[in-house]
Write a structure and sequence with these properties.
heterodimer, A: 113 residues, mainly beta, 5-stranded antiparallel sheet, 0% helix, globular, B: 113 residues, 7-stranded mixed sheet, 4-stranded antiparallel sheet
Amino acid sequence: QKEVEQDPGPLSVPEGAIVSLNCTYSNSAFQYFMWYRQYSRKGPELLMYTYSSGNKEDGRFTAQVDKSSKYISLFIRDSQPSDSATYLCAMLGSGEYGNKLVFGAGTILRVKS
Amino acid sequence: NAGVTQTPKFQVLKTGQSMTLQCAQDMNHNSMYWYRQDPGMGLRLIYYSASEGTTDKGEVPNGYNVSRLNKREFSLRLESAAPSQTSVYFCASSFGQGVDTIYFGEGSWLTVV
């Protein structure tokens, strides 16, 4: 079983829709939760991160963490074609790999104009 | 603003050949990383270097070697390439470890035939 599970999609939505992207995880030691955005043929870039449970908002993006359910979400409001990308969740792990990020497989998002 | 620069961007190798992927960062970061990205697998850590002069194995180190040449440069070597090493390779760097933002290069597409 992977430590981090993420539906690969693709997820196709019309412009202006609210998008929900999700990850589940198994390691209860994760404390920091990140979302990266990756455009085609580019490296990932950090969108936002949260610590422990709760919500964090940044413009049209909201990250949500529910540690009791081991479930994290990224919501995108008023989605735009420029949001079309692969979104990867990542979590700060411990254990044998030290404090290293563990990534989900990524969800492909397509926003249609 | 160069950030993290990787070379080459594309390479085709025959099974058994060797090659080195080069990476340099100009952000005065202490930590550097090599990841591979495969469909459905997300980003997996191959090796990392927490600081100049140190290197450690990540999740998938077999078949690879690394060298932290100086603070700026971190190379990844495939001594005897195998088809299973066909992947997209990303170099990354961060000031520290843990929640420090990791900056990725644009990737190197490697095909082993």
